Amino acid sequence: MIEKKIIILCLVGQFGNGGTEKQLYLFLKYLDRSKYIPVVVVSTADTGAKWQDIIHNELQINIHFLGSGPKPFKIARYVSILCAIQPDLIFSWSFHTNAYYSFSFRRKFIGSLRGQFSMAKSELTIFHLKKSLSPPYFVVNSTMIQKELIDQGITPEKVNVISNIFEPEKECSLGKSELRKQFGIRDDEILVAGAGRNTPEKDFSFFVDVFSSACKIKRDLKAILIGSGGLGVKNKIKELGLSDNIVLTGEVPYARKLLPCADIFFLSSIYEGMPNVLLEAIDSGCTPIAMNIGGVLDILGNDNPHLECIIPPERDAMIVSKMLINLADNPNLRNKICHFNKDNRINQFKWDKIMPLYYNLFGTILNRI
Length: 369
Known about the structure:
There is one protein chain. The chain is of the alpha/beta class. The chain folds into two domains: about 5-165 and about 350-365, Glycogen Phosphorylase B (Rossmann fold); about 175-350, Rossmann fold, CATH 3.40.50.2000. It is about 40% helix and about 15% strand. It has 15 helices and twelve strands. Strands 3-2-1-4-5-6-7 form a seven-stranded parallel sheet, with helices on both faces. It is elongated, with a radius of gyration of 22 Å.
């Protein structure tokens, strides 16, 4: 007897070009297609979104759009898709699409929260927030977010921590020296990197404050801000007289390909889910400094013997700048931290460790009456 394949309908708010969409792609890429049939439903269309094209063309997965009309129209379209597809399981990948649980006719449903609750809360109305907290099960990508949901009254057994999938990039064709030459950075300079989009939660202004304090003492420090986020602090950099010390790349296709040029990576964000860029920086050979937000501690590990050197006790520019100077002055310490992270942390997030957690959750939910 041939076992019937399980149809999973994946709901996502929209296809931008960020980490959440990449995680959906990786989940779908490694989903066992001999057992599961994935279908993607997108609440809001976004033209020019690369992950939409990759999921449709590379993975050969059908994508349905709810359209850009008023909410009742979208709900009617969603119900129509449910009736046509008859999914066994609905998996909401975005927090705000969790609200579609109310229109899913008691079908098996999993909600998600992939960024800190305080950030998600600020973006929704009270009614929408309540509906987004209504699903019977949740997937979150860090223990910090799990705690936030439990603090909102969600029972612990409903909240499942499943970390992001990390897929190492193929080795860069250019070495560290070659990458640095592109930006006029010498081999003997200590280079601190930041990376991300130009959004408030990335707080590149704090990155500049920390670097400004550190380079007054450590003159051979340089910085590189990879991505559009650096452009948001361009005027501040100029006002502080740091234009010769901080390189701004602007928007780049893949920040990961430039990270190997740096010695230290500083994650200055105020909010994060599980920051993919931190995993990429570790894999690139950077020593991290990261604020204790979102999934940072899940990535670096409670058992990490170097935590006091890489996670600041508070969000204070002077404290973080001293930590930065300490790492810059101690190449042996940087090497120890890098080796520990690559040997003990990166492998925890590869697909063959993460996908079985999804399968166990799906099996539990589908077999529950």
